[in-house]
Design a protein that fits this description.
The structure is a homodimer of 117-residue chains.
Chain A lengths: L2 H9 L7 H11 L2 E2 H7 L5 H13 L3 E6 L5 E6 L7 H22 L1 H6 L3
Chain A binds a DNA duplex (20 and 20 nucleotides) through helix 3 and helix 4.
Keywords (chains A, B): DNA-binding, Transcription, Transcription regulation
Protein name (chains A, B): Helix-turn-helix transcriptional regulator
GO molecular function (chains A, B): DNA binding
Chain lengths: 117, 117
DNA sequence: CGGCATCCCAAAAGATACTG
DNA sequence: CAGTATCTTTTGGGATGCCG
């Protein structure tokens, strides 16, 4: 097993289109309900959100707490193990800020905000 | 455009199955030829490697230098702008180390090295 | 050597409808 | 509210062959 493979398989746990965004939300807001996450991430479908949360849960990154009541209520929190991911998420956040400025410089400030076309 | 969307679109530039691994290689080794990258990342196909490199090039993360000679020689390097990604890659690397230890603790040291089954 | 073009299959993900 | 189930579409990515 090569070094890259280990690196890659460790990344699989949280990279992808949605996981960083979900994790970022949970890091920022702490405990969140399913519907809260949906609102916070409008472009994700219910199916995807469920699926991604299940995978994160499987890998001991998020905790799922279900209240047996009507209507149902499910809360998601980060596990203690997820704290190890905080530096990555922070670095990603910094990068996204930097990248946005980069785009502004390339295409002009006003475009970067309105984002037409 | 929501905050998440900006975050997400910034991530799109380098997350995915292969980009972090490619970037990690370039950060570690500096300038690399196409065939060097192929050797370093055995599981990637020529097609994928080309494709991922083109996308990284498009986003000003890697630089492609082509020598007009026979046989051809193409060298890839990171751009200056790519330095902004270094903290992310480092954090990812740290995480992968941490995660590997985590697995060792769960399943035992010897298994984590030999990795049978 | 470092690609690109084409074909093809499998996996991912969207849409919609239904449920405890 | 927080999901499943099903179906369909889109995408990812492997295999092969050709080319400058």
């Amino acid at each position: 097993m090569s070094m890259d493979c280990k690196f890659e398989s460790a990344l699989e746990i949280f990279v992808g289109k949605w996981k960083p965004v979900i994790l970022f939300q949970l890091f920022t807001n702490g405990t969140m309900r399913f519907s809260q996450l949906q609102k916070a991430i409008p472009d994700i479908s219910k199916k995807m959100l469920t699926q991604q949360l299940r995978e994160l849960e499987y890998h001991d990154i998020v905790n799922r707490k279900m209240y047996l009541q009507v209507p149902p209520k499910v809360e998601y929190t980060l596990t203690e193990y997820a704290n190890n991911l905080e530096p990555v998420l922070n670095a990603m956040w910094e990068w996204s800020e930097t990248h946005l400025k980069h785009l502004s410089e390339l295409y002009g400030e006003e475009r970067a905000q309105g984002d037409r076309t």
